[in-house]
Design goal:
single chain; 355 residues; alpha/beta; Rossmann fold; three-stranded mixed beta sheet; 12 strands; 15% strand; binds NADPH dihydro-nicotinamide-adenine-dinucleotide phosphate
Length: 355
């Protein structure tokens, strides 16, 4: 286990502190006794901040809220003032959109510019940790064919996504590119990028809106009862991901991009991992034929296009997580633990009907 030396002399900014991923980062920072500046869109929304207040009350650290919006230039300046470190996690993660430019790309790309240019104007900032995504590395599983080694690595960039095809992945790609562009124009702070695969595991925030919940919920609410599409995915536990963020922030050796992914897996394998504990639930037990998914999926869910099915279903996902292990000292918990803990929480919160 790597020992982290946490600098508690200066506050730390976390953007999007109300989010699923950010919740565990804030928890770890507060446990370490850090002063956390939580930048949120609406600090007055008691529903969204109650879990953070409860955490702060039980921890040695201190929590302060600041109102900020990715699309309001300069709105992170007050929250960043005096901070040595910035965790930039805020970015919309939703597949249910009508205007990809406005709802995904603008907040991701302009928001990253906004936060990082503020870092360049804030003398105290020494490091920015950006929550990017494996979606900035690949767009479709078919992209594996064009990699140098048959596995996604930090050298790969997503070149297949666009506003019309996988717009969320496109938003994460242009946001990370924007981050490297802004970082390259100054020398006062260094940029360390975390590239997580699909995040699973329990939330600190019971009202988290992350798309992670919608996807795992479908494994248990009956919508996939007939079977699951055979889509390869990477998965990482949200608690492991928070640890990776802290290491990216406090280990001097951390640099560049790092794939943070515990498992090369698939949708049917995630379902399979639920069965030992949740066999009474309508968890998919079969894999649907690709032709059937191609025919039906776009009718059931408008974000699953036929182009997506063609380029993802029946194809594996493989990423190389060795840099995260060698440089950040990551150890990943078992897949079954992560997916089962999350499923149980969705049942407890009434999001999956009890059986
Ligand atoms: P959440 O939806 O839970 O968190 C997203 C956060 O971004 C929320 O706090 C949200 O604030 C904030 N946000 C969105 N739009 C704006 C805006 N215009 N101004 C200010 N804040 C905004 O998702 P996750 O926790 O899953 O995602 C966190 C990060 O992790 C994102 O960058 C995402 O791309 C990345 N990621 C997530 C993965 C996953 O599988 N979950 C995988 C790989 C990367 P509010 O509460 O006000 O809506």
């Amino acid at each position: 286990m790597i020992e982290l030396t946490i600098d508690k002399s200066k506050p730390v900014l976390v953007t999007g502190a109300t989010g699923y991923v950010a919740g565990w980062i804030v928890k770890r920072l507060l446990e370490e006794g850090t002063t956390v500046h939580a930048a949120v869109r609406d600090p007055g929304d008691r529903h969204k901040v109650r879990h953070l207040n409860e955490l702060a009350a039980q921890s040695p650290g201190t929590l302060r809220y600041f109102q900020a919006d990715l699309l309001q230039p300069g709105s992170y300046a007050e929250a960043m003032d005096g901070c040595g470190l910035v965790f930039h996690t805020a970015s919309p993660f939703t597949l249910n959109i009508t205007d990809p430019q406005k709802e995904l790309v603008d907040p991701a790309q302009l928001g990253t510019r906004n936060v990082l240019e503020t870092a360049s104007r804030t003398a105290s900032v020494k490091r920015v940790v950006l929550t990017s995504s494996c979606a900035a590395i690949y767009g479709d599983n078919a992209d594996l064919d064009s990699t140098a080694t048959g596995v996604f690595t930090e050298d790969d960039w997503n070149t297949s996504s666009s506003l019309n095809h996988n717009p969320y992945a496109y938003s994460k790609t242009v946001a990370e590119q924007e981050a490297w562009r802004v970082a390259g124009r100054q020398l006062a702070w260094d940029l360390v990028v975390v590239n997580p695969s699909f995040v699973i595991g329990p939330a600190i925030n019971p009202h988290a809106t992350s798309e992670s919940f919608n996807i795992v919920r479908q494994l248990g609410d009956g919508r996939m009862k007939a079977g699951a599409a055979d889509i390869g995915v990477g998965a990482v536990d949200v608690r492991d991901l928070a640890e990776a963020h802290l290491r990216a922030a406090y280990l001097p050796v951390a640099s560049g991009r790092t794939i943070v992914s515990g498992h090369n897996t698939s949708l049917p394998a995630l379902a399979q991992a639920l069965l030992p504990r949740f066999s009474a639930y309508p968890v998919p037990r079969r894999t649907l034929p690709k032709w059937m998914v191609w025919l039906l999926a776009p009718l059931v869910d408008k974000s699953t296009t036929r182009a997506f099915v063609t380029r993802n279903v029946g194809l594996p996902w493989k990423a190389d997580n060795r840099k995260s292990i060698a440089e950040l000292g990551m150890a990943y918990r078992p897949l079954a633990e992560s997916i089962q803990d999350m499923f149980q929480q969705l049942i407890d919160n009434g999001l999956i009907p009890k059986h």
